[in-house]
Amino acid sequence: MAKIGVFICHCGENIASMVDTGKLVSSIAEHPGVEVSTEYKYFCSDPGQETVKKAIRDHNLTGVVVAACSPRMHEQTFRKACAEAGLNPYMLEMANIREHCSWVHTDMVEATEKAIEITRSLVEKVKRNNDLEPISVPVTRRAMVIGGGVAGIQAALDIASAGREVVLVEREPSIGGHMAQLSETFPTLDCSQCILTPRMVEAIQHPNITVMTYSEVEEVDGYIGNFTVKVRKKARYVKMETCTGCGDCIQKCPVKKIPSEFECSLGNRTAIYTPFAQAVPNVPVIDRSRCTYFKNGKCAICKKTCQINSIDFDQQDTIESIEVGAIIVATGFQVQNTAGYGEYGYGRYKDVITGLHFERLASASGPTAGKILRPSDGKEPQTVVFIQCAGSRDVSKGVRYCSRICCMYTSKHAMLYAHKVHHGVSQIFYMDIRAAGKGYDEFTRRAIEEDKAGYIRGRVSKVYEENGKLIVRGADTLLGRQVEVEADMVVLATAIVPQPDAKEFAKKVGISYDEYGFYNEAHLKLRPVESSTAGIYLAGACQSPKDIPDSVAQASAAAAKVLGLFSKERLEREPVVAMVTDSTCAGCWGCVEACPYNAIDRRDITDRNGNLIKRVASVNPGLCQGCGTCVSFCRSNSIDLAGFTEKQIFAEVMAL
Amino acid sequence: MSEPFEPKIVAFVCTYCTYAGADLAGTSRMKYASNVRIVRLPCTGRISPMFILKALQKGADGVLVSGCHPGDCHFAQGNYHARRRWTVFRALLAFTGIPEERIKFSWISAAEGAKFAELINGITEEIRSLGPFEQYQELQTVIETQSTY
Lengths: 656, 149
Prior knowledge:
- The complex is a heterodimer of chains A (656) and B (149).
- Chain A is of the alpha/beta class and 656 residues long.
- Helix content of chain B is 46%, strand content 15%.
- Chain B contains 5 helices and 4 strands.
- Chain B has helices at 18-27, 49-57, 78-96, 113-130, 135-146; strands at 9-14, 36-41, 62-67, 103-107.
- The radius of gyration of chain B is 16 Å and the shape is globular.
């Protein structure tokens, strides 16, 4: 026997000026099931809410309709009031007679008529509301960070220092990412590795952080608070537990001419190697495809050299299954291959290099010990031309977006070049100079004023070789003429693009990506570190091109989100979720496929002996977001959405 | 002088886009015809053709279904399902004898308060010119007079 309380708010003059509230009260009072029908100036105020609570208690109301503003405004307020009065908070509906009625109509008679119908329809709906309890999902309070670059390391350190366990997974043999490859960072000209390596060491030594290098994520299963991740630890063929990092094996390895990935092929490495001298962990890895022992069973010098018997050719990949409650994706970026721009000559001329190559040349621990030398003949270039926007901001061929870091690192390169080659001349072809960060514009001005970097506003049409020099032909639009520069080296500020397997990885993890392969945030302005999947967060350049300060900030933000998630043992969720009626479910799986959140599983129903009776759909209340797509899909009406059930909606419609 | 016919229009809208857009029209004090009654759903994906038919059966002269723009659904894909269902449902309308013009489908985002107001006014006028939807009432009468229960 329904006993509904209807509370009609005046909202001061906002409703009362256009809706005859007295008429509304008396009209609704006559509707079957309505026990209380009353009005008040401001129901959302304290005395207003007290009136509602008192009515609930005095009349033992089974449901409440507040006819007032939009539910998007005060639904939570009144749900709380109901709960405090002892009524299940989901036995409340709000009739929107303000935004949808009094504020948008000019005829009082019509507006009142409409208000009556709206209120009546919601009374019918609330009669069919069910008591709902918030769903409580347990949370595994361990996080996984995928990607060991500066963003991943920062996120791991933040979570670990708050007392929570973190597993940091990195697919290269060492953590550090691209930041480890840089020489000096803008705008401070800090030596990149000097500021990064302490963090790397802190991460690997931190008791709460488990660093898994040379490991890749194979599979992600589960949902927020309850993920199970399978990680493949690739075989290093070196025992991590005993290796001391002495480096003898690397010294003695006879295969010495493999182009080093870390050095962007400007230098070489051996078959057993660490990617760079400051690698963390400092344990080498054998490149199976180039190792003589793996190719024909001969050599094994490293094993003979190792004094603590740490080489193990029989090591196998292992798969570890790890339970975590949240995942931060910090997989970073790669540099675009500019060979597609034939006019720049990349790939054709050895002395046309990318910004990342220049970093390795400038780096004190790089292949040239910090000297800027031409890759072709090892001579010092006297004139270097830098080309900005080599691939970015291009509608026709490259990528449409701005890669954000190139203006800054190009001016930095010009400065480093000037510091190292005192009489060197640098010319930078630019479209704009984007120096928006803190200290950034001052930095670029320093390059121009102190280090005499020459900026030419215009695009380059062609780079070609003549008499051993690279001729760069372009336009100087400020002077309005064509320009030709004879250069010894050309540095392209290439676009930064997502990792080559960014899209496959996103599918594996269950997050969405944009047309370029950058990962989608939940809301571009207001939720920049959450992905579209609950429990999975984003940090760093995998979400969009960004520099180190922004990557670090985003990583800390993602860590804060994770710590917020971990602040309670259980996660409470709105109970507007779907439910399956097992008896009528035919197991057609239409709902399983329709669900955008993969929230519906298949469940076996067995008898006491374990024989299978049938398989039905089963909604995971931890994942269901309450959209209702499955409900309209179901051919046998076996699934319904709490809060918007079939009965509720039909009742609402019929009462109109 | 008889009163002009006032059509009754039922609008099934999604909470996150069109309902919010209607709220915006309200907060901006835009004025539109008072013939529409909004039924709030979490997502257009929740809408079943049965709701539309029930509304028409119970006296609505026109029905509007409105949700988030394709690609912007708060629940990622619900509006795609709604669009597909609508495509199939439209083909069935001819079979049921309901004129297609009485059922409208639109995309209105939470920022498009003005568009919502315009749309309601436009639809109200259109349905007004189509006249009251009496087929169901006629059918009901036939059943009642011919029924032997």
